[in-house]
Amino acid sequence: MGEVRGGWIPPMYLLRSEAMQLVQLIIPMESAHVTVSYIGDLGLIQFKDLNADKSPFLRTYAAQIKKCAEMARKLRFFKEQMLKAGFSPKKSATQVDINVDDLEVKLGELEAELIEINANGEKLQRAYNELVEYTLVLQKAGEFFHAAHSSASELQREYESRHIGEESLDTPLLLEQEKSTDSSKQVKLGFLTGLVPREKFMAFERIIFRATRGNVFLRQAVVEDPVTDPVSGEKVEKNVFVVFYSGERAKNKILKICEAFGANRYPFNEDLGKQAQMINEVSGRLSELKTTIDVGLLQRGSLLQTIGDHFEQWDLLVRKEKSVHHTLNMLSLDVTKKCLVAEGWSPIFATKQIQDALQRAAFDSNSQVGAIFQVLQTKELPPTYFRTNKFTSPFQEIVDAYGVAKYQEANPTVYTIVTFPFLFAVMFGDWGHGICLLLATLFLIAREKKYSSQKLGDIMEMMFGGRYCILMMALFSIYTGLIYNEFFSVPFELFAPSAYACRDLSCRDSTTMGLIKVRPTYPFGVDPAWHGSRSELPFLNSLKMKMSILIGVAQMNLGILLSYCNAKFFRNSVNVWFQFVPQIIFLNSLFGYLSLLILVKWCTGSKADLYHVMIYMFLSPTDDLGENQLFVGQKTLQLVLLLLAFVAVPWMLVPKPFLLKKQHQDRHQGHSYTPLESTEGTFQLESNHESHGHEEFEFSEVFVHQLIHTIEFVLGSVSNTASYLRLWALSLAHSELSSVFYDKLLLLALGYNNIIILIVGIVVFICATVGVLLVMETLSAFLHALRLHWVEFQNKFYEGDGYKFYPFSFALLDGEDE
Q1: For 98-122, what is the mean pLDDT?
Q2: Nearest C-alpha neighbor of 280 from the set 138, 151, 170
Q3: What is the largest CA-CA distance in the chain?
Q4: What does each C-alpha distance from 108 to 67, 96, 476 come to in angstroms?
């Protein structure tokens, strides 16, 4: 779980989960809230829901939860408003004690005030935007009317120059027609002005033309800058339009079209004097509205600042209150309805702290009766609780992703802390890449305090959470890189000069045939003389392949030994004699023997063919080994090991189902009736478990299960050993990729003696190294190491069918979203 601190904590023990107990608390009603709150501060009890059959709406504290949910909604509203205004909630240095009821009233008042300010601000802003649009209409339409008036004046002057002595300028253009036409048949032209979104103008013009059958005159003017729409509040590019029409029917059609296209219409007077007066009036109102809006924004900002100063404290208080009432709803009322009864799991080491918290709660709530704490006896499987810290928690998360450990079974995390980064490093062995990984990890560790208080992205949060796991991976990569003697695929004589030298000039063809040993053996890792030679690949392939088998057999043996530890811990002698013993014999009769042959061949320098030895160990076990014999008595040993391997299979398969059947019969012989117990509660608990115990023993089901388990182990021993060869394959791939990037990018660029090509080559080399080797290869090696632990190692002993210990803790509320 999380890191737990305090002087009362015993030393951390990761191999077995904490010993747990089922506790019962009987809490008086008057101190229930304070008691649960103190237990939440302690964070060491996982409550059981004793009202699982009740609907959430019918529970005792449903009304209080509803009230807390309403307060949480108001706080979310405040947070949204603060984020829109550019404020961020601050952690208040001074904690002000406030009652939940007072907080509810205060939040209601603040919400009403903020809603009113927002509504007024929206009205003012809409009026301001409408006036801005009106100003544009007055300007653009005024320009059109002014241009039309100037054009008419010019035409009138031309007409007068040709017809001296005729009507003045003020005479209407159609005066003669009007005089000669009946007044009842005169046509009066009207016009509408407004703004329409530019993207809709073409369709707007087309629809008007079709609806009025072309009996309109439409003019438009483009507004250069985007305009804030009064309705949506968004910036929109618009055009000012003027539509001249004839008749009321055409007007009604145009009005409906304007409404459909979201065109805002504004009144306009064709008199030039009144236009100037309206522009002055609108400008004055705009300045007044701007001042009013600024004052409103200052008032709103001041209110949000006040809310932001206390937001974190109020939010935490509401969350705590809600979680307390959720927990209280899990408790059951006793028959007198004066006490609440709680049941839950807690670690045994926390007993004293829980009792102290109960006493403090009774004292602080002025309760006449204190809460009663008692331990219940049960056969129910307790939750699994490991106390971890920031170093061990990422490794525990890796194991838990496969499955949570059963209560007190051996925890693979203890060994994963070392084996996981080591297996990663076997595939990623390059001390140059390891240093790059180490520097990135040290950067995360150096900024630990800053990043731990921030919300990071998904990938960054994952890397930061596993920073100490990556640190171990980097350190082990440097170690294995020194063994492989590779620094970005380049060998170095770090610990001593190479033990080999050229016999003569003929050895320049990069082959070890011309090399002779002139110095002592290279003290640590691979001799640098191997790199670049023709026999480099066969030598490293043989080395890494055999090393992978040795590592795999060792880790699988560790898994089988842990199955023995589990069997001894749970006092299961059947699993010791009929699971552990035949499994350890079978695995080591075949692959343990292969590991022994590898070590003997390395020590003696023999040229024996191990493939031939292992194949003919099965095909012709009685034949002489000839030149493949590594030691005296090897043939006899092979026959004995082969016999043991064949015996181990029925040893695993046959006896265990029969012994389990006999144990079942002995356990229930003569127990047809359940004895009465002294107390009703204990009797109920035991009778429930006896009913489970009297289930019929399905021998065929058990035998089939054991058959599957045996076949899986026998075949898995071969496939799992072969699976560890991925260590060799990925190590080879990493080394070859690194060598290709170095030879084909860096050295090739250096060979041109051109500064530009050199810079390009270095940049491409860095990008390829980071992108492929430090990102993709790291992820690939991580996933393969994960698979080796989950499948090849943990399946030997780890059941992983438990469930986590989730205590009621206020400390867990900080990282949770509502």
Answers
A1: 92
A2: 138
A3: 144
A4: 12, 19, 58
3-state secondary structure of 367: coil
Torsion, Cα of 711, 714, 717, 719 (10° steps):
-50
Please give the Cα distance from 500 to 557 (Å, whole number): 38
Helix (H, G, I), strand (E, B) or coil at 344: strand
Q: Per DSSP, which regions of 267-411 are E strands? A: 332-333, 339-347, 372-376
Most confident of 289-293, 332-336, 471-475: 471-475
Calculate the alpha carbon distances from 723 to 72, 335, 731 in Å: 53, 62, 14
pLDDT at 197 over 60: yes
- Report phi then psi at 762, rounded to 5: -65, -40
CB atoms within 10 A of CB 32: 24
pLDDT in tens, 653-695: 999 999 999 998 888 775 544 443 333 333 333 333 444 445 6
**Cα–Cα distances in angstroms (integers) from residue 298 to residues 76, 287, 304, in the given order:** 22, 17, 10
For 800, what's the count of Cα atoms within 13 Å in the CB-facing half-sphere?
18
Which of these, 367, 365, 371, 319, lies nearest to 342 by C-alpha position? 371
Burial of 445 (0-12, 13-18, 19+ CB in 10 A): middle
Q: Where are the beta strands (DSSP E) in 479-567?
A: 500-502, 515-517
Nearest to 785 by CA among 729, 735, 732, 727: 727
CB hemisphere CA count around 419 (13 angstroms) = 24
Cα end-to-end span (Å), the chain: 21
Residue 194: phi, psi to the nearest 5?
Answer: 170, -165
Q: Specify the DSSP element, H or E, that contains 334.
A: none
What b/e sequence results for 630-663 when a residue is b if at least 16 CB atoms lie within 10 Å of its CB, and e otherwise?
beeebeeebeebbebbeebeebbbeebbeebeee
Asked if residue 614 lies in contact with residue 671, where contact means CB atoms within 8 angstroms, the answer is no
Q: Dump pLDDT digits (tens) for 482-495.
A: 999 999 999 999 99
Question: Which residues, at least 6 apart from 612, have a Cβ–Cβ distance to it below 8 Å?
Answer: 628
